Amino acid sequence: MTTDEVLAGVGPRLRQMRKEREVTLAALSETTGISVSTLSRLESGLRRPSLELLLPIARAHQVALDELVGAPPTDDPRVRSKPIVMGGRTHWPLTRQPGGLQAYKVLEPQRKQEPEPRTHEGYEWLYVLSGRLRLVLGEHDVVLTAGEAAEFDTRVPHWFGSTGEGPVEFLSLFGPQGERMHVRARPKGA
């Protein structure tokens, strides 16, 4: 991969990291001391990244500089990611590269919430590891238990979270519109 190709990937990576952490450009600007316009131009690829700009962003997101620039992987295939807490949920990223299919292990604490279905572009696949996961999808309101999976188009209003009966641990795979997971499961009793 050429230097220009590596640098071209920095902007989308910065945008994805900021959005995953649910941080606005204004909030990141305040934390880093970098203007909103400069941050926006970095994310859109209109400004070439420099060490002076990337170091404060890496500190603000609490990640290694390698994660911002997408340093080529070493011979070690393990994904070493730090948990991210968003909206009370803890997410462990299971993929290294931004864009394309993204995988997360998620821990949702025990809590009773009123569902607030949302829509966005993409396709999602959920697999429950332990506990009970409530999924509201369009007109459906179902509870998934350990070993059960669901897949859906995220343009359908959806919400998922704890049933309020205990914590739930699940895997979430999310991809751009058109990417789908193929789940093969044995029929019950087979």
The succession of helices and strands, N to C, reads HHHHHEEEEEEEEE
Number of DSSP strand runs: 9
Overall mean confidence score, pLDDT: 85
Binned, the helix content reads 25-40%
Radius of gyration using CA atoms only: 19 Å
Largest sheet: 6 strands, antiparallel
The class by helix and strand makeup works out as: alpha+beta
Strand order of the biggest β-sheet: 1-2-3-9-4-7
N- and C-termini, Cα separation: 48 Å
Give the helix tally.
Answer: 5
Proportion of strand residues: 25-35%
The best one-word shape is: elongated
Residue stretches low in confidence (pLDDT < 50, at least 5 long) are: 179-185
Q: How would you characterize this protein structure?
A:
With 190 residues, the protein is of the alpha+beta class. Helix content is 27%, strand content 28%. The protein is built from five helices and nine strands. It has helices at residues 3-20, 25-32, 36-44, 51-61, 65-69; strands at residues 84-86, 89-93, 102-108, 123-130, 132-137, 140-145, 149-153, 158-162, 168-175. A six-stranded antiparallel beta sheet has the order 1-2-3-9-4-7, with no helix packed on it. A hairpin with a 2-residue loop joins strand 1 (84-86) and strand 2 (89-93). It is elongated and about 50 Å long. The chain starts with a helix and ends in a 15-residue tail after the last strand. Mean pLDDT is 85; it is low at 179-185. Keywords: DNA-binding. It comes from Streptomyces violaceus. This is XRE family transcriptional regulator.
